[in-house]
Amino acid sequence: MKNKRRNVFLHVMVWSVLFFFPFILSYNTEQAFRHVVAFSWVPLMLYMLVFYLNYLFLADRFFFSKRMLLFIGINILIIGILIWLRELGMDRFFPRPLNGEVGKGPPRKMVLYIQTLSFLVPIAWAVGQRAMERLIRTENERREAAHQQLKSDLQHLQYQLQPHFFFNSLNNIYALVDISPEDAKSTIHSLGKMMRYLLYDTHTEKVPLAKEIGFMIKYIELGKLRLSEKTQVDYNFPEVEPSVMVPPLLFISLIENALKHGVSAHEESSIFFHMELNNDQRIIFKGRNTDFPKTDSDKSGSGIGMKNLKDRLELLYPNDYFFHTETKSGIFHVIMEIPLHP
C-alpha cells in the first residue's frame, strides 16, 4: 500500500512538472497562453492518454504476453486517431498559422511524421516503467519465497533438534540419577532452559548472540555426557554485549556435526570450537574435530545438514559471508565468517 501511494505521488509530480513548466516559461499574454495550450498542453494530454493506455492495459495484456502484432497494431490505431483528433482540433480552435502568415513552417507530412514519432516516447516510457515494476515485483516475490523457505528450514531444524536431543539428554540424565543425583538435577535444569530457548526465543529473525552462545555451551555440555573419556571437548566463546544480534541456531549445525562425526567409541578423538568478534565487525566461528565419517546407513543427526546451512548463509548474507570446510590428516576443519550487525 505504501509503495502504491508513493508510485501515484511520483506520477502526479512528473505530470505536474511537465504541464506547468511550459506555462511558467511563457509570457503573460493571451497569445502566449494559446501557444502553451496548443503546442504543450494538448500534446501532453494525448501523450498521457497513450502512456496510461499502455501502462495500465496494453503492456501487460499484449506486450509481455508476446502478442506483439496486436500490441503494435493497436498502438498504431490509437496514434492515428489521436493525431487526426489533434489536427481536427487545431484547425477548428487554433487556426493556423497563428501569426497570420501563410506558407510558413515545415511541410505537413514532416509534421505528421514527427508527431507520430513523438508518440513512441510515452509508449516506450510506459513499457519500461511496467517492466521495471514487474521486475521489482518478481524480485520481491523471490525474496519472500526465499524468506519463507528460510523460516521453514529454521523450523525444520528446531523440530529435528528437539526430539532426538531431548531423548538423548533424558537417557544421559537417567544414567546420572544413581551415580550423581546433584549432577542429574543440574542437568535437568539446564535442559529445561535449552528447551525453553528452542520453543520460545528462536521464532524471530534475530536473537542476542549472548543467548545463542549460552545455548551452544549448554548443548555442548549436555552432549559431553554421552561421550567417553577418549573424547576431549573444548570451546572458547567470547562475552558479548546484549545488543549484538544474530539469526537463531546458525552455529548449532556445526556443533552437532562435530559431535556426530568427531566421536569414536574405540579411538582417541578431540573436538574444539572457537568464536571471536574481530575489529572488522565480523563474527568468526572455527571448529576442529577428529573425523570419523558415518556410513550411509547412519541417519542420525540433524536433518538440515551443512548444505542447508550454506543455503541459509546465502539467503541471510548474500556475497557477504565466508564458509569453508576441509579435512586434513584425519582432522575436519570448518570456518564461518559473517558480518556483525549490532
Structural notes for this entry:
Residues 153-230 form the Signal transduction histidine kinase internal region domain. InterPro entries: Bact_2-comp_sensor_kinase, HATPase_C_sf, Sig_transdc_His_kin_internal. One of its GO terms (cellular component) is membrane. This is Histidine kinase. The chain is rod-shaped, with a radius of gyration of 35 Å. The chain is α+β, with helices and mostly antiparallel strands and 342 residues long. The chain has helices at 2-25, 30-63, 68-93, 108-118, 120-179, 181-201, 209-224, 252-261, 305-316; strands at 207-208, 231-236, 245-246, 269-277, 282-290, 322-328, 331-339. It is 63% helix and 13% strand. The strands form 2 sheets. Strands 2-4-5-7-6 form a 5-stranded mixed beta sheet, covered by helices on one side. The chain folds into 2 domains: 2-118; 160-339, Histidine kinase-like ATPase, C-terminal domain (Heat Shock Protein 90, 2-Layer Sandwich), CATH 3.30.565.10.
Detail the topology: elements first, then pairings.
Elements lengths: L1 H24 L4 H34 L4 H26 L14 H11 L1 H60 L1 H21 L5 E2 H16 L6 E6 L8 E2 L5 H10 L7 E9 L4 E9 L14 H12 L5 E7 L2 E9 L3
Parallel strand pairs: 2-4
Antiparallel strand pairs: 1-3, 4-5, 5-7, 6-7
Helix pairs in contact: 1-2, 2-3, 2-5, 5-6, 5-9, 6-7
